[in-house]
Amino acid sequence: MTKKSAKFREEFLAQLKETNPNQPEFHQAVGEVLCSVTDWYLDQTDMRKNAVLERFTEPDRSIKFRVAWEDDDGQIQVNRGWRVQFNQTIGPYKGGLRFAPSVNESVFKFLGFEQTLKNSLTRLPMGGAKGGADFSPKGKSRREVGRFCQSFMQELYRHIGTDIDIPAGDIGVGAREISILFGHYLKLTNKWTGVLTGKGCDFGGSAGRTEATGYGCIYFLCHMLEEANCEIADKRIAISGAGNVALHAASKAIELDAKVISLSDSSGTLHIKDGLDHEMLDKIEEWKTTKRESLADFKTGKGVKFLSDEKPWSLECDIALPCATQNELEEKDAKKLVEQKVMMVCEGANMPLTADAQQVLRDADIPHAPGKASNAGGVAVSGLEQSQNAQRLRWDADMVDKRLREIMKTIHADCVENSPKRKIIDYRDGANLTGFRRVADAMNAFWHS
Ligand code: NDP
Known about the structure:
Order of helices and strands: HHHHEEEHEHEHHEHEEHEEHEHEHHHH
Largest sheet: 7 strands, mixed
Mean pLDDT: 96
Bound molecules: NADPH dihydro-nicotinamide-adenine-dinucleotide phosphate
Number of helices: 16
Structural class: alpha/beta
Radius of gyration: 21 Å
Number of strands: 12
Number of domains: 3
Distance between the termini: 30 Å
CATH topology of the largest domain: Rossmann fold
Shape: globular
């Protein structure tokens, strides 16, 4: 980055922080993208006149609402719901719903901003959005989750639609929640449309959507390895998380003969020294997804150790795949990975690396793929689900997987093409520049609307 760009970035961020106080996640996400796009943007006189960057970092709208619901004791509980419709320039808003106690407007703005770039990377006509509620499904009965979802949709339904905004799942919102939300949308509107993605295959969902983010992440990783003249077989992969993304990434990696040496959750890390097999993965999936239990209570066998309250990043590995949540991999963790001579880091989660952790990897010339590129497979298949719904068609799993592979290959190629010429491919800059330029060009063409 030139001196002029660094000064522009600093001043732009200072202004952003002043107008968006107490939103550290949003500041972090914008700050990271500015590192990649400022040199290019400063040369675009027309765009600067049309304030494209200022418009790009301001969501179209942010909707906040009350969600009141009745618990099993008959007590009314009150939560907050949000939908941040970030950018509609290249297609209707698209992005997941997250139910977790830790969410707030800053988290949804960061996620909506990232989603806009990610969706642009897929080359599908999708804008960016994100939403959810500060509700934790953990420890709630099915009936409580059901009542919450219905109340949430009671407000959300007026803001969404196939040509407006198409939400999907995210942390805390899986197949069960999407089904209840979709069922209630039908009751409220009497219209069968593909207004949510991630639906069950029997009612409009796409084959392969559940697996898409994790599988897509491994397809992207394979391209990174190929670029470095390596292959995935026998590589030791440390994965964090034990949710949708982590479990499906693990499954595809095992299928390709890699050695998956860890999974983790908020209680700690499961270390599988000789590598997971499909049988054990199925048991873990049932434990986490069906029974919704903690890994701390998972019955381990020979060669498997549970490391209470620890992350996987001190384990010896060739590849790190953070698939749990934002900022889960900090500077000290990155240093440990560098010490162990990790070959590359490929993000399954959204922004799992802090800015300091990313810098450690850059300084050590370790390739690092940002989630907006490497985890875009989920939203890409959601886009394919929208196409199938609109055509009233259903594609088989092979067809969807083929399209997913093509999309991940194209995203990888675009990142490589737009990476600045450094010793290694700069996936962060390549992804940010590719995603930003597409949306910025369209916003510029729209003048100031
Ligand atoms: P899930 O809710 O299915 O799983 C999340 C997993 O991460 C759980 O195992 C959870 O543990 C663990 N986790 C959460 N917080 C922490 C923490 N602070 N420390 C350690 N582990 C933690 O979510 P997904 O797998 O769907 O999503 C994971 C990430 O991937 C998120 O960043 C999401 O935004 C991103 N993503 C997901 C997509 C999808 O299609 N699902 C698409 C693109 C991105 P526990 O069970 O103990 O809570």
